[in-house]
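[audit] Reproducing an earlier prediction to check determinism. Same input, same settings, fresh worker. If the tokens differ from the archived copy the diff job will pick it up downstream; this log only records the rerun itself.
[audit] input (77 residues):
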Amino acid sequence: MPFDALPRGNPRDGWDDVCQGCKGLIVPGQEVAQVRFDADPTSGRQLEQMNGAYHAECARPILSVKRALDMLGRPFS
């Protein structure tokens, strides 16, 4: 894709960011969800790699997993 070579944070003629899920561009006016997993060095999970902006539809499965993990707390610590 022609936009792949552009560095993040550069103005892109109205394009805001790239969706972490589908890797498509997020344009102004689209519904966006910010996903944030905290780093947990005790469990060895690398979920913080999934942090970032997602299209609202792309974020639904990720947010479902996040809610389930939040409900479980840290049972394996």
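[audit] rerun output stored. Observation attached for the diff report: The chain has a mean pLDDT of 78.
[audit] end
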